[in-house]
Amino acid sequence: MTSAHRMLNPQGLAPARGFSHAVVAAAGRTVYLGGQTAHDAEGNLRGDTVVEQFDAAAANVGIALKEAGAGPEDVVSMHIFVTDAAAYRDSLDQLGDVYRKHFGRHYPAIALFEVTALFDPHALVELVCVAVIATEAVQS
Question: N or C: which end of the chain has fewer CB within 10 A?
Answer without folding.
Answer: C
